[in-house]
Design goal:
Phosphorylase Kinase, domain 1; kinase; Kinase-like_dom_sf; nucleotide-binding; Protein_kinase_ATP_BS; Ser/Thr_kinase_AS
Length: 842
């Protein structure tokens, strides 16, 4: 009504006010008071703000307002922003005996038009009428010498409410109490016939004393564009789309329901830490569609598993606690504020405030008062002592019965879970040996493959069983070298654990297992992500977490950095038994890391200590003790004690064959350790035979495509090259690793290019330059080269040039040069670019 009155000429305005007074005396009187106040502020009862300022528009320089300029009795200190109406300065009111810090708002002269000036006049009237401690108050209003209107307001030193609450780590309860102060200010504005229309965090400041101030009443009437990049003009309304109500975007009637919707948006972000929609990733059209048509998701669903910091900012210790706080009454209140139809929201701010108050006091909210069970729960919560005394006798009578029932249920549940686990394993063994042949050699891999279908059947119906057995099977798959399968199984086990309501400790353990499996599969980025998630679950201080962190650092060429977390894992597991997996792996991984940073003697000493510790508690043929002996053979060789390694290796190998059999990944490691020691001792033929056995065991246990298998095949090829014979076997090995490795180029990267360089060298040395060149310029080689490091690219460039020269590509007189010569120049350009690319330098 006030907006309509200002749009009319004086005579029509007087008639409009009289008509309103006839219809409602109180509203008409209030409207007349606002109109008169507005006329006094602009200095005339008949001349509008537009008339005053239009006279001098051309006389004003756009940069006339700047720090240091004195306007009346105010000195401008700094520009602090652009509000809904124009530019805002912090200023000092100067007098003979006092000074006062204020905020001054000016119309932006470069964007002035009549409608904006009229709205500025309206804002002055609004501020003059609003006298409330929660609203930035009006101090003065005037015009500059050139006619630029301005208002002088209280300067508020504070921070946006969301930022302030997070910085002070306010609990949910404290945030609600602060919001009630904002509601009191908004209610005062509504009682004075003012709808704010742009309530958002940046327009609600909180002072150091914890008092709120509502700012910026600059869009109480439609505006033209004023250049704010975070706002837009929709249906001739200047607003912030992210906090706008649907009717504001549809040019509908503007009522107090707009402010209630905006408060709902503010409450949503204050409580859960996120806005209802991912506005930052949405286009303007998508934002408008979401606000107008898409129901806001429940607050708890917008809290991510990684939002532990948001929980801590609200005085909570876990994400689960935060989600629990957001459900129930708070969700009902926020969702009612955010309903698409204005008439379905709260009717007044007082109604909303009443429900917030009821939440703080534990009483039923208006939205749900018809629910009898809900009202009863609230009554009990408010009268805990009395309700407890009344219920004590009843509880005493039922206590024994309840305890017995719970024990019976728990025993039955555990029995059922055990029976399901045994049944699953029986089915797995039966499936792995379907003919039930006595003495059949059923491998662990066959059992694991057979167990998966039975396990998957429990994913939806029995997630607790899936989570526990899934983690166990994932660890078994990991122990036999099936990293890819183990990582997928651990991922699904984590999902099942969440569905079954497992606690953070159980889920953290699953994340650790998944990270270990991802490292074994070569997926280091996702392994790092799982480690971060496990840290958020409170696992960063555990030796299990430090062990996996050290393992990841080793696999990402950070052996020196890996020593510290691995040493911590060893120190923190000193009191554990020799059967403990973490304690054993920490020692083996640390020994590896020490060897890689030229501390070989320390690695041997550590493994000797580990063997003494294990022999005190384990049988001589225990698998863990056997594995440590294998690691020690390699450590001795690296420490220039190869004679000791060679003397120890045959006995260790026999123990490995006795404990693990001939088709196991551990057997492959043992044969490789023996082969390395033999090769170091110039026993190349024996070493080649050991590597053949290692390759056979790896293929049988983890498959032909596993990276360990490919590395063994390549090492065998290199060894045979040194022998100078077996050309057919060598070529077959090279071609096999390049074809199978090409399927894993993203993981192998430089290693795969190095293998190709070695194959090309072999072909060149055998006088087969065209075949070597064909390998180097093939489409597969060109693509894989893009993933290689600068050092490997340099080596590739050298052998490419050598192969090209050997083929006569540089002979301009050649009658029939190989067709691959044409590709050499283009590939050379690519290698020059790759070698100098920042992402490929080591």
């Amino acid at each position: 009504m006030f907006d309509e009155a200002l749009d009319l000429d004086p005579l029509a305005r007087e008639a409009f006010v009289k008509r309103c007074m006839d219809e409602d005396t109180e509203i008409g009187a209030e409207l007349e008071r606002l109109v008169l106040r507005d006329q006094r502020l602009i200095g005339s009862k008949t001349q509008s703000a537009v008339g005053i300022v239009e006279v001098s528009l051309d006389a004003t320089e756009p940069d006339a307002l700047k720090p240091g300029v004195v306007v009346g009795s105010y000195r401008l200190e700094e520009e602090v922003g652009e509000g809904g109406m124009g530019r805002v300065f912090r200023a000092t009111r100067i007098g003979p005996d006092f000074s006062q810090e204020v905020a001054i708002k000016f119309v932006r002269r470069d964007l002035v038009h009549p409608a904006l000036l009229k709205r500025f006049s309206t804002e002055r009237a609004i501020l003059a009428a609003l006298d409330h401690p929660g609203i930035s108050r009006l101090i003065d209003a005037a015009t500059t010498t050139d006619g630029t209107p301005f208002v002088v307001m209280e300067f508020v030193r504070g921070r946006p409410i969301v930022e302030w609450c997070n910085a002070h780590q306010l609990t949910i309860e404290a945030r609600l109490k602060l919001v009630r102060k904002v509601l009191a200010a908004v209610a005062h504005a509504h009682r004075n016939l003012v709808v704010h229309r742009d309530i958002k965090s940046s327009n609600v400041l909180v002072t150091d004393e914890g008092e709120t101030r509502l700012l910026d009443f600059g869009i109480a009437k439609p505006l033209g564009r004023i250049g704010n990049t975070d706002a837009t003009v929709t249906a001739e309304r200047f607003l912030t789309p992210r906090s706008a109500a649907p009717e504001q975007l549809e040019a509908g009637a503007i009522t107090i329901a707009c402010d209630i919707h905006a408060i709902g948006m503010l409450l949503y972000e204050l409580l859960c830490g996120r806005q209802p929609f991912a506005f930052d990733t949405m286009t303007p059209g998508e934002i408008e569609n979401a606000i107008r048509h898409v129901a806001p998701p429940p607050m708890a669903s917008r809290v991510a598993d990684a939002d532990l910091e948001a929980a801590k900012q609200r005085g909570l210790t876990s994400v689960r606690d935060l989600r629990a706080e957001l459900r129930g009454d708070l969700e009902h209140i926020v969702q009612r504020c955010l309903r698409k139809r204005p008439d379905e929201r709260y009717g007044t701010i007082d109604q909303l405030d009443s429900d917030v108050e009821h939440v703080l006091e534990g009483r039923p909210i208006r939205e749900r008062q018809s629910d009898r069970w809900y009202r009863w729960r609230k009554f009990v919560a408010r009268h805990k002592v009395a309700s407890g005394l009344v219920a004590a006798l009843f509880v005493t009578i039922l206590l024994a019965i309840t305890a017995i029932a719970r024990q019976t249920i728990a025993i039955a549940h555990e029995r059922d879970r055990a029976q399901r686990a045994v049944g699953l394993l029986k089915s797995a063994f039966a499936a792995a040996n379907p003919m039930q042949i006595n003495g059949a050699n059923v491998t662990a891999r066959q059992v694991l493959d057979a167990a998966r279908p039975s396990l998957e059947a429990t994913f939806e119906t029995q997630p607790d069983v899936y989570a526990e057995l899934g983690e166990t099977l994932a660890e078994v798959e990991l122990s036999v070298g099936l990293g890819q399968q183990a990582s997928e199984l651990a991922r699904r086990a984590t999902l099942a654990a969440r569905a079954a309501g497992f606690d953070d400790k159980q889920i953290g353990s699953l994340l650790i297992t998944e990270a270990r499996a991802l490292i074994a599969a070569g997926d280091y980025d996702n392994a790092k992500a799982r480690l971060h998630q496990a840290a958020d679950a409170g696992f960063a201080t555990t030796p299990e977490w430090k062990l996996v962190q050290g393992n990841l650092l080793q696999h990402t060429s950070q052996a020196r950095e890996s020593v510290s977390p691995l040493q911590q894992a060893v120190d923190e597991t000193n009191g554990r038994p020799a059967t403990d997996e973490t304690a054993n792996l920490a020692r083996l991984q640390l020994a590896q890391a020490l060897g890689r940073v030229n501390r070989q003697n320390e690695a041997v000493t550590l493994l000797d200590e580990t063997l003494r510790w294990q022999r005190q508690q384990l049988k001589p043929d225990h698998p863990r003790l056997t594995l440590t002996r294998i690691y020690r053979i390699d450590a001795l060789r690296r420490a220039d004690r190869n004679n000791e390694a060679l003397a120890e290796a045959p006995a260790v190998l026999q123990q490995v064959l006795r404990v693990f059999g001939s088709r196991n990944s551990v057997t492959a490691i043992a044969y490789a350790a023996l082969g390395n020691a033999q090769n170091e001792n110039k026993q190349a033929e024996d070493a080649a035979e050991s590597f053949r056995h290692a390759l056979e065991a790896s293929r049988a246990s983890v498959g032909d495509d596993h990276q360990n298998t490919l590395r063994l095949a390549f090492n065998l090829a290199q060894l045979l090259v040194e022998l100078g014979s077996h050309d057919e076997e060598i070529e077959g090995l090279y071609r096999d690793v390049l074809v199978r490795g090409g399927k894993q180029a993203e993981t192998l990267r430089s290693t795969l290019v190095f293998w190709r360089i070695s194959f090309a060298r072999f072909l060149l040395d055998r006088g087969r330059a065209p075949a070597a060149l064909a390998q180097l310029v093939s489409p597969e080689s060109t693509e894989q080269l893009k993933l290689a490091s600068g050092r490997t690219v340099d080596d590739f460039t050298k052998i490419l040039q050598e192969a090209a020269n050997a083929c006569g590509c540089d002979d301009k007189l050649a009658v029939d040069p190989p067709t691959d010569c044409a590709a050499v120049l283009e590939l050379t350009k690519q290698t020059q670019t790759a070698a100098h690319s920042p992402g490929n330098l080591q």
